[in-house]
Amino acid sequence: MKRSKSESEPARKKASAKKEAPAAKKAAKAAAKKSGRAGEPESRAASSRARAKTAVQSASAQAPERMKRSEYEEHLERLHIELVKLQQWVVAKGLKVCIVFEGRDTAGKGGTIKAITERVSPRVFRVVALPAPSDRERTQMYIQRYVKYLPAAGEIVIFDRSWYNRAGVERVMGFSSEKTVRTFLQIVPLMEKSIVKSGVILLKYWLEVSEEEQEKRLKERATDARKTWKLSPMDLKSYSRWYDYSRARDDMFAATDTAHAPWYVARTDDKRRGRLNIIRHLLEHVPYEDLPKPKVKFPKRQKRGNYTEREHAYKYIDEGY
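Above: the chain sequence. Below: its structure as tokens.
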């Protein structure tokens, strides 16, 4: 029996709707999937930023408080006693020790060196802080001006910046070509191996300070009359080149962090903690023993005899304190 046109139309629409429904559902599903993929990188980036922020907050929360002066001086006094023992051992046994200090501007190299040398003999602990090379020195083999300062028996030589100027400031500020720097980075591990094989104990320290702390210290140098001498024109030029120095540091480590002369990195946002950590590390890496102390007996003072103090118009300084 044939259906009328009016009866068959709804049936056809219903059948068509049934056919279209799965296709529409499939299209909607594909669109949702595509939309999800498009939003995925943004979602991942937001998630990464959130994780980084959490990590920074966590690190900040875990960072120890800045050390108080009283606590610092208490620890430093004990380390000074050990440095004196080290000095006596180095002299007695004829050891040769070379310590290199490098790092970011304001990282605290000078203060650390001062803390090390404060209570020891400058004839044993010699500090080498070379100025810019002279016209004659510029014509020499680069390493030549540093080699003559290396320690003899019974000496500890501290370089306040060193031959690594070539890999750092000279490279970043354009004083040396890339070819010259690359050649230096190839040669210096061999040179340091020769130094170590000659019997020198070589320790290399890199002092690392955060970008925020560096900025704070540089601004203090600009405003504190006691520190203005530390702020050089070179510091101002270097101020905006944080990541150029980071890349130079990374290349230097990659080429010269060797088994015979490794780099040791010290975090120095807290200068006091940084100094103590470096001194302790130094004492752990130069073997020494406590030598027996001879009994001290002071001789008797001589008698006045016939000495008479002469009359003289001494020019005493004003005693304002």
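The radius of gyration is 34 Å.
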